[in-house]
Design goal:
The structure is a single chain. The chain is α+β, with helices and mostly antiparallel strands. It has four domains: 1-16 and 156-294, Immunoglobulin-like (Sandwich), CATH 2.60.40; 17-45 and 57-152, Immunoglobulin-like (Sandwich); 303-399; 407-501, no CATH class. Helix content is 15%, strand content 40%. The chain contains eight helices and 27 strands. It has helices at residues 210-214, 303-307, 317-325, 333-340, 348-362, 367-385, 396-404, 482-488; strands spanning 22-30, 33-48, 52-62, 69-70, 76-77, 79-88, 91-101, 114-122, 126-136, 139-152, 160-161, 165-172, 180-181, 184-188, 193-194, 200-208, 219-228, 239-245, 249-257, 264-273, 279-289, 409-413, 419-420, 430-431, 438-446, 449-457, 467-471. The strands form seven sheets. Strands 11, 12, 13, 14, 16 and 19 form a six-stranded antiparallel beta sheet that branches. It is globular, with a radius of gyration of 26 Å.
Length: 505
């Protein structure tokens, strides 16, 4: 397969795309037999020069989780009822209600497949509340409902990268259909989880407005690469660049061999850059990889480089261990395996090698400079959050500070606060008397996410010992009951000066 094109967005100039995976677990009963409806949905956004922005949804239903009824022809078939409603300012902007039929089967005892549905729904630029309802027609008593915010953005004055569609399989199109794009039928991959037996990552995206912005005869560079979710470190083994001619719609249709992608959380990134290497637009999608059979060989760098490195000069094993432990907030999952297991018995030379390799992967030109810059932030975290109960980088606030940087704003609420500050205008002024001390950290931009919050609280009134209670950032602890938990925390008879009265510290 060839890579034909690619992108997310700097400075608010991109069509925003949200990829969410929903798992519906709805208990359905059929006589003495219990069923649990299992379905997954994700979606992304594209733009049609003829029809404007649209959202594309991908739904997968596990065949073993639905109720099959016998048809007149003696075969069995299940039916799922789906309703999608898009509201803008409490007004229905678009909706779709339809029935998804399973393939027919002769025997329901051996249903081992999932059936997939794809829909395209036009939506003008704007912010929407997306409501999805799903239920089994043969068990109509219970229906699952979920509401999700969706933002569609399109600006014809900017190069824009669409959302990224993950592809399960593809073949040349024999005719136009809902799954056809640019001459191929693309079977969507609903899940962003890639197990050990998944050997390739196939993806599709589009780039718009290159002709309008760069001119009819211009060209630009398209970069596709994978980075660990915890850092912006580009994995060179999963990176490629291609020059593209300007077109009304440029297509990115490519794949990576992920047989040697270690277990962990990652972002697949697409960038568009001009002839001067200026970033025009970019987009990314979160993926998870489980590959326990593959462990990267990151502990054997060039011996000459190592012996001339900053890490070689650090001879104290205790110092090396402390430095390595402080890397956890920014380490990839496969790098944490060494911290948790390998570091306990590793000799000093291996610790030096790990420290050097870690920073060489993030800054090949100046790993020592990157190391020193980060250690300055570790010292700041120590001053802000460290105490006699533990190092600053080991606290929840220290971890978030080091992983994402300092917040743009902090809402401080001491013990005598009479109300809880909230995360939206609709939640403003929610009264909560008698809450324990808490802080709300606000990030205006967090990687490829916007307007994200972290709620920390101090349930035991121990100085600096704030715990993460809730965040709406991707991959963080999500707790919709955080406000009520602040009210329920027992705060009487706590001796803040005696650590023995505070289990866990």
């Amino acid at each position: 397969m060839t890579d034909n094109n690619n992108t997310i967005q700097p400075n608010n100039t991109l069509m925003k795309k949200i990829l969410l995976i929903f798992t519906f677990a709805l208990a359905l009963t059929c006589g003495a037999e219990a069923r649990k409806l299992s379905a997954s949905l994700n979606f992304t956004t594209f733009f049609s020069p003829a029809d404007g922005p649209y959202i594309e949804t991908y739904l997968s239903v596990a065949g073993h989780s639905v109720v099959f009824n016998k048809n007149d022809n003696g075969m069995y078939r299940a039916a799922i009822e789906i309703t999608m409603i898009f509201r803008r300012n409490d007004t229905v902007a678009n909706f779709k209600k339809y029935e998804l039929l399973s393939p027919e089967v002769a025997d329901t005892a051996f249903v081992d497949f999932s059936f997939i549905d794809q829909q395209r729904i036009p939506l003008p630029a704007g912010k929407y509340d997306f409501e999805i309802r799903i239920g089994d027609r043969n068990m109509p008593a219970q229906v699952y409902k979920q509401n999700v915010p969706v933002e569609m953005y399109y600006n014809p004055q900017n190069v824009i990268v669409s959302g990224i569609q993950l592809v399960e399989s593809f073949q040349p199109s024999s005719g136009e259909s809902i799954i056809s794009k640019n001459g191929y039928d693309l079977v969507p991959r609903v899940s962003n989880f890639y197990p050990a037996d998944a050997g390739r990552l196939v993806f599709y995206a589009e780039i718009y407005n290159s002709v309008q912005v760069l001119g009819q005869n211009g060209r630009f560079l398209v970069s596709t690469y994978i980075t660990p979710y915890e850092s912006a470190n580009k994995l060179e083994a999963f990176s490629r660049v291609k020059r593209q001619d300007n077109r009304d719609v440029n297509v990115v249709f490519s794949e990576f061999d992920i047989s040697k992608l270690a277990s962990g959380n990652y972002n697949l990134v697409i960038e568009a850059r001009d002839a001067e290497n200026k970033l025009l637009s970019m987009n990314s999608i979160f993926i998870q990889r489980s590959n326990p059979g593959y462990i990267p060989d990151y502990l054997h760098p060039d011996s000459l480089k190592l012996q001339n490195s900053f890490a070689w000069k650090i001879r104290s094993r205790d110092t090396l261990v402390d430095y390595i432990q402080s890397l956890r907030p920014i380490a990839a999952e496969y790098e944490k395996v060494f911290m948790d297991v390998g570091m306990k018995s590793a000799p000093t030379e291996v610790l030096q090698s790990y420290l050097f390799t870690f920073w060489q992967a993030r800054s090949e030109i100046n790993p020592e400079g990157a190391f020193k810059t980060y250690m300055e932030e570790v010292q700041k975290a120590e001053q802000l959050f460290g105490s006699r109960f533990g190092r600053g980088y080991k606290t929840d606030r220290g971890r978030v500070y080091l992983q994402y940087g300092p917040p743009d704003a902090i809402n401080e609420n001491p013990f005598d606060a009479g109300s809880i500050s909230t995360l939206s205008d609709n939640q403003a002024n929610a009264g909560v008397g008698g809450s324990v001390p808490y802080q709300i950290w606000h990030y205006y931009q967090l990687k490829n996410q916007r307007n994200k919050f972290f709620v920390f609280y101090n349930p035991h009134l121990v100085p600096k010992q704030y715990q993460l209670l809730h965040s709406d950032a991707q991959g963080e602890l999500y707790n919709p009951m955080w406000q009520s938990q602040l009210r329920r925390v027992p705060i009487d008879n706590i001796d803040a000066g005696n650590p023995n009265t505070n289990p866990g510290f």
